[in-house]
Amino acid sequence: MNPIHPLNLPKTNLNLSRKGDKIYVFCQIRRKQILLTPEEWVRQHFIAYLINVLEYPIEVISVEKSLNYFGMTKRWDIVVYNSQFTPSILIECKAPQVSLSENTLGQVLSYQNQLQCEFIGITNGINHFFWQVSGEEKKIKVISEIPKKNQN
After folding, report:
1. Which pLDDT value is given to residue 73?
2. Domains plus CATH for the chain?
3. CA distances from residue 122 to 26, 49, 89 in whole angstroms, order as listed
4. Could you list the mean pLDDT of each consecutive 10-residue stretch along the chain, which spans 152 residues?
5. Which of 86, 87, 92, 142 could link 115 by a cystine bridge, Cβ 3.0 to 4.6 Å?
6. What is the structure's pLDDT at 5?
């Protein structure tokens, strides 16, 4: 399956390379070549969106880290840390052909249960849904976009 698919995110120049019949992308967060899958295509475009449009520095973005959730090892896609280096934004990425569903929201909420971010989102590169989590009751409200660096 061709991982390169038109997305509903700003165009960006990704550093792509080919080894045999596989395509790789250089991840500026992980500082290494990553096999380009459809989900990685979305992840790299969203990372570029965070850096180039929302103005988050590379140093506060973390990608594909593990967490323990009720004895199971899970991996979240993107977390942006605030100035106190606590998780602030959590984004779950899916491949463009994967529909965003209640299961996708449940997945990101399970990570949120551990990370306690102020903003959460899910994206398949075509559709994006974002929420702000606030208050002691952890109420979530729908927001149209993740705020820029200096707005959150």
Report:
1. 77
2. 21-145 (3.90.1570)
3. 23, 14, 11
4. 84 93 95 95 97 96 82 86 93 96 89 90 96 82 91 63
5. 87
6. 85
Q: Which residues pair with 133 in a beta bridge?
A: 140
Strand order in the sheet with 32-35: 16-19, 22-27, 32-35
The answer to whether the pTM exceeds 0.70 is yes
Task: Report how far residue 122's alpha carbon sits from residue 124's, in angstroms, rounded to the nearest whole number.
Answer: 7
Distinct helix (H) and strand (E) counts, the chain: 2, 9
